[in-house]
Automatic annotation (TrEMBL), chain B:
Identification of the protein by name: IGL c3652_light_IGLV3-21_IGLJ3
Domain Ig-like: start-end pairs: 1-89
GO CC terms in record: extracellular region; immunoglobulin complex; plasma membrane
Gene Ontology biological process terms from the UniProt entry: adaptive immune response
Coiled coil: none
Amino acid sequence: EVQLVESGGGLIQPGGSLRLSCAASGFTVSSNYMSWVRQAPGKGLEWVSIIYSGGSTYYADSVKGRFTISRDNSKNTLYLQMNSLRAEDTAVYYCARDLTNGGALGYWGQGTLVTVSS
Amino acid sequence: SYVLTQPPSVSVAPGKTARITCGGNNIGSKSVHWYQQKPGQAPVLVVYDDSDRPSGIPERFSGSNSGNTATLTISRVEAGDEADYYCQVWDSSSDHRVFGGGTKLTVL
């Protein structure tokens, strides 16, 4: 059974850094397209970043240069390093796996809340 | 960047058919995916590649895509279908995943 469990969220001051983790089970992270998607309170879904099985990474314009997606194959875990955090980064962050490496996000974690506030 | 436009809300009576649209420039040339999200829960994929259903999703959920509009159709709507629905595509020109703004489905 595919499972994704996010952790690492919390309250952080503007300008601070945070690293989110997404522990996967039931499949191999490095063989799949893995994304981070966020949802600000009361708002819609916003795609944040993706790492392909080959290792290529892409970012939404809103986070490019501040966030870094990575994975640890030995731990079968996905990460999102978030630097220079802003109030507008406040959101629930979900990790998600492509259903068939074809663009549809078929598996989602339960999300972790990041609150950027002084 | 590629933009997807959804109506903010759609209302439907139980047992009727709900149609939620997703507009985008030449969206018919892309594969469209649809998600259902209930309050406090993670999104769930209900239709992928325009019209395919993941295992476990009822046949009442179907999709179509042509020209500048993709449509999610929910037949014989039930109270439990009340949720937010999002369309999504893969914009290959930027390698970005793009979501629509979401549509709140209300079952009257």
